[in-house]
Amino acid sequence: MSEKPEYVPGLAGIPAARSSVCLIDGAAGKLQYRGYPAEQLAEHCTFEEVTYLLLFGELPTRAQLEGFSAELARERSLKFRIIDVLKQLPESGHPMDALTAAVAVMGMFYAEGDHVADPAFRRLCAIRLVAKLPTVVAAWHRIRRGDNPIEPRTDLGHAANFLYMLEGEEPDELAARIMDVALVLHAEHSMNASTFTCRVTASTLADPYAAVASAIGSLAGPLHGGANEVVLQMLRTIPDASPEAVRRWAEDKLARKEKIMGFGHRVYKVKDPRADILQGLAVSLFEKLGTTPIYSIAVELERQMKDLVGHKGIAPNVDFYSGIVYEKLGLDTDNFTPVFAISRVSGWLAHLLEQLEDNRIYRPSQVWTGTADRTVVPIADRG
Ligand code: SDX
After folding, report:
1. Ligand 1 centre distance from Cα of residue 26 (Å)
2. Which partner for 82 in 78, 89, 123, 281 could form a disulfide, CB atoms 3.0-4.6 Å apart?
3. Which of 23, 54, 223 to mutate to test the pocket of ligand 1 (most atoms within 8 A of CB)?
4. What is the dihedral of CA 111, 117, 123, 125, to 10 degrees?
5. 264 lines ligand 1 (CB under 6 A)
6. Are 318 and 227 in contact, with CB atoms under 8 Å apart?
């Protein structure tokens, strides 16, 4: 009898690490960072507080938070040669590719002869990556349209400073708070594809910039973080918000076995708790700025999908309402996934630190499906 473990496509349900960073109960729709419910963190904490919690395991005291926030603010700026690298990239390129490139080269600019085995170096890399990602995203946003990047400010919070660097206008309190909550909600989500990618790269003792660059590449795909951009494009193809039009559209898609973006999840079999909070954020923005027809279409699509495929556990995920929030905040559609990255970098780094605390290189096995022991025929004799 063979004792070989069974192959599981997508490693569904296979534990890839022992972790104390994030707990998800997919049947109950429960999400906790370091044991704290995401809903409470979104209500009471800033992104800086949540990043501290993820990286170091405990919520900071006021003094710890002040020190940590000051460190982050000091590390926001980029060396001008990283800006030069961004200036060489084609302006038609996707912002996620620009972000991957900039983070990969950061490892060269901030190497400083240290090694990842040194906990102080790892901590500094983590602070730099969290601090600098928004600066890269904002800089690329401006460079690709021919404008100079805006220097980060140290007197603004992480979320407010990001919005400021995009257009040079200080955001109002509501916009800054909503951006902050969106960052909190996307910061961590256990063993998703990009986090797994980050842990695999980190397990080779590659530097943290390489690990995060690989994670950004993984997040970009439309089955993962890239879905938030595609959701909005998809909603725009639905002719109107009437139940008949939306149902016809959804039935056609499902009949063609096409995936409906922003729905479904490997772990959640109910509505993703983050989707509920993001939907609430969209509504609070509408109260101030007026609603958008896309929102009515989204709500109707959620209703019709519940009827059509709700019994299969397919419900809105985090990406379904986030794009509507970001669009109302004035972000370009192709910047939605980079915003996911500037938040998720905290989770990636929490996992990187955890991985390196007790590292063993990832090296799974495979199920061989080829023909073995073949003999090479020299090219002259091949028919
Ligand atoms: C994120 O894992 C994470 O934590 C990720 C994330 C995070 O915070 O990091 O939560 C962020 O990536 C959210 C997901 C964004 N992606 C999308 O919205 C793309 C659309 N969703 C799917 O492609 C899909 O649901 C996945 C990729 C999210 C999950 O894929 P699985 O677990 O491999 O599930 P599957 O594709 O095998 O589907 C199982 C069944 C199939 O039906 P049957 O063949 O069994 O009849 O559910 C159906 C699928 O056809 N299905 C869908 C669907 N999602 C699943 N049918 C229509 N539309 C969908 N969106």
Report:
1. 13
2. 78
3. 223
4. 30
5. yes
6. no
The Å distance, Cα 129 to ligand 1 centre, comes to 29
What are 281-319's pLDDT values in tens digits? 999 999 999 999 999 999 999 999 999 999 999 999 999
pLDDT in tens, 328-380: 999 999 999 999 999 999 999 999 999 999 999 999 999 999 999 999 999 99
Element spanning 357, H or E? helix 336-357
CA 248 to ligand 1 center in whole angstroms: 21
Given the residues 141, 186, 265, 351, the one annotated as active site: 265
> In angstroms, what is the span from residue 113 Cα to ligand 1's centroid?
42
Burial of 365 (0-12, 13-18, 19+ CB in 10 A): exposed
Take atom 31 of ligand 1 and give the residue whose Cα is closest.
Answer: 266
- Torsions phi, psi for 356 (to 5 deg): -75, -15
| Residue 3 predicted with pLDDT over 80 | no
Name all domains of the chain by residue range, CATH numbers in brackets: 19-221+334-357 (1.10.580.10), 227-328 (1.10.230.10)
DSSP symbols for 192-210: -HHHHHHHHHHHTT--HHH
Spatial CB neighbours of 195, under 8 Å, sequence gap ≥ 6: 188, 189, 215, 344, 347, 348, 351
Of the residues 180, 207, 319, 351, only one is catalytic, namely 319
CA pseudo-torsion sign 351, 354, 359, 365 = negative
Regarding the beta carbon of 266 and ligand 1, being less than 6 Å apart is answered: yes
Q: Is the CB of 269 under 6 A from ligand 1?
A: no
Average pLDDT over residues 224-251: 96
Report yes or no: 87 and 310 within 8 Å, Cβ to Cβ: no
Query: What single-letter amino acid sits at 272?
Result: D
Confidence of residue 111 (pLDDT cuts 50, 70, 90): confident
pLDDT at 2: 55
> Residue 299 Cα, ligand 1 centroid: separation in angstroms?
19
- Assign 113 a pLDDT band (cuts: 50, 70, 90): low
H or E, element range at 37: strand 36-37
